[in-house]
Amino acid sequence: MATSAAAAASTLPYLGAMDVVSEAELREKGFMGLRKTKLVCTVGPACVGALPALARGGMGVARVNLCHGGRGWHRAVMREVRRLNEEEGFCVSLMVDTEGSQLLVADHGGAASVKAEDGSEWLFTSKRTDESHPFTMHVNFDKFSEDILVGDELVIDGGMATFEVIEKVGNDLRCKCTDPGLLLPRAKLSFWRNGKLVERNFGLPTLSAKDWADIEFGIAEGVDCIALSFVKDANDIKYLKTYLSRKSLEHIKIFAKVESLESLKNLKDIIEASDGVMVARGDLGVQIPLEQIPAIQEAIVDLCRRLNKPVIVASQLLESMVEYPTPTRAEVADVSEAVRQYADAVMLSAESAIGAYPQKALAVLRAASERMESWSREENMQKLLPQHQLAIALPDRISEQICTSAAEMANNLAVDAIFVYTKYGHMASLLSRNRPNPPIFAFTDNANSRKSMNLYWGVIPLQLPLSNNMEDNFNQTIKLMKSKGSVKSGDTVLVVADSDLNRPRAATSVFQSIQVRIVD
């Protein structure tokens, strides 16, 4: 069983209102001004004290990378996020990243970064010593040099520095720097031969013993999502989901991080097995040519939307803001392109975790997202997107068709908002998949479902008691939102409802409806 912290996540008092950020946006900008792209921030030393400011700035998901820091620090961050939700009216989901099995430059024994000069010779070794040695890099895997030949290229962090292997010394490699650059702690290694990645299978599990310990820690602290690193195939996802199911923790969502050549080969199966996907472009760029990244990103985003899985575009979106208070124009264009592709979320990594300007980076991410969404509406680009049938069983096909039709009606009738009443968030996800013009207000009586909908494009999740009487539910929500100044008389709302919110997910019949209501 999960500990009390995890249990508390599903027994919070009914919040009875939307989160304070969405409420403020709605008052300031109206329905069509609500931002639809979700914002994820990686929490690190640079922003721990700024968590309240980041939440006010639009952070919808706080990501904790368990590769860095210790248990005490991770626990403090997670509890602060929960406090913000419970005491200050935010709705921020918690995501943890597993480390996964990967080859890393673990330590160079010097300062935070070391410059590799052109022509300098370096020893890459798995031997560990207590002393630092100049021109030596320690790799955290004994067999890292297996199948590597003299003449191969050793590339650091996708091109930060490049070396040529000039000699094999036992399991070590002596290399000469051919492209100078900075060697950072925990930098990624890849080996190339004749312009192609040297692919090797060391038989390492996707989840190490450390990863399992981290997952148990995350469960105990009530996390909402687990981002699984270096996924090889769908079985990696299925195994973890089965493990969570046995603990009655199906509400914890599993996001597959697409960051390797192996994951690209099994992409469709991985997406179908997961609850969502993170396009980890930094690590992906270590294993594939950089010029292929844009096309691969667009293909992954499109496939995720078609398969109804939320997708996060991550890594190096505003990388220059790690050091500088303003981004490059190319970086803003990069963010805007991810938004134009209808990614569900965009993510800050080092920019918020270790950067000098985490709040400014989030403000840029938010402003760029809002402007691109506005431009899409102005240019009438946000038409109903093509879909293909996902469901097989008739009840599921009915739900799918109702949500597709509802999105089309909402666009054609230019309604102000879509209301959906949902137990587990599935109907909200089907509406989001169509990327309609109006915002989607998803009402649920389940705290875990509310958190899981935090990564659905265009969805504002609210938690409040619901009954099987849809008229009562509608009147209750209208009364609530009127009291907050969120809706007014004359507003047009398209309502999508399941008449039996307590119906099991596997039920053989459905009673769903679409209504268009004008607020009195």
Automatic annotation (TrEMBL):
<comment type="similarity">
    <text>Belongs to the pyruvate kinase family.</text>
</comment>
<keyword id="KW-0479">Metal-binding</keyword>
<keyword id="KW-0670">Pyruvate</keyword>
<keyword id="KW-0324">Glycolysis</keyword>
<dbReference type="InterPro" id="IPR015795">
    <property type="entry name" value="Pyrv_Knase_C"/>
</dbReference>
<keyword id="KW-0460">Magnesium</keyword>
<dbReference type="InterPro" id="IPR011037">
    <property type="entry name" value="Pyrv_Knase-like_insert_dom_sf"/>
</dbReference>
<dbReference type="GO" id="GO:0004743">
    <property type="term" value="F:pyruvate kinase activity"/>
</dbReference>
<keyword id="KW-0418">Kinase</keyword>
<dbReference type="InterPro" id="IPR015806">
    <property type="entry name" value="Pyrv_Knase_insert_dom_sf"/>
</dbReference>
<dbReference type="InterPro" id="IPR015793">
    <property type="entry name" value="Pyrv_Knase_brl"/>
</dbReference>
<feature type="domain" description="Pyruvate kinase C-terminal">
    <location>
        <begin position="400"/>
        <end position="502"/>
    </location>
</feature>
<dbReference type="GO" id="GO:0009570">
    <property type="term" value="C:chloroplast stroma"/>
</dbReference>
<dbReference type="InterPro" id="IPR001697">
    <property type="entry name" value="Pyr_Knase"/>
</dbReference>
<protein>
    <recommendedName>
        <fullName>Pyruvate kinase</fullName>
        <ecNumber>2.7.1.40</ecNumber>
    </recommendedName>
</protein>
<dbReference type="InterPro" id="IPR036918">
    <property type="entry name" value="Pyrv_Knase_C_sf"/>
</dbReference>
<feature type="domain" description="Pyruvate kinase barrel">
    <location>
        <begin position="35"/>
        <end position="361"/>
    </location>
</feature>
<keyword id="KW-0808">Transferase</keyword>
<dbReference type="InterPro" id="IPR040442">
    <property type="entry name" value="Pyrv_kinase-like_dom_sf"/>
</dbReference>
<keyword id="KW-0067">ATP-binding</keyword>
<dbReference type="Pfam" id="PF02887">
    <property type="entry name" value="PK_C"/>
</dbReference>
<dbReference type="Pfam" id="PF00224">
    <property type="entry name" value="PK"/>
</dbReference>
<dbReference type="InterPro" id="IPR015813">
    <property type="entry name" value="Pyrv/PenolPyrv_kinase-like_dom"/>
</dbReference>
<dbReference type="GO" id="GO:0000287">
    <property type="term" value="F:magnesium ion binding"/>
</dbReference>
<comment type="pathway">
    <text>Carbohydrate degradation; glycolysis; pyruvate from D-glyceraldehyde 3-phosphate: step 5/5.</text>
</comment>
<dbReference type="GO" id="GO:0030955">
    <property type="term" value="F:potassium ion binding"/>
</dbReference>
<keyword id="KW-0547">Nucleotide-binding</keyword>
<dbReference type="GO" id="GO:0005524">
    <property type="term" value="F:ATP binding"/>
</dbReference>
<dbReference type="GO" id="GO:0016301">
    <property type="term" value="F:kinase activity"/>
</dbReference>
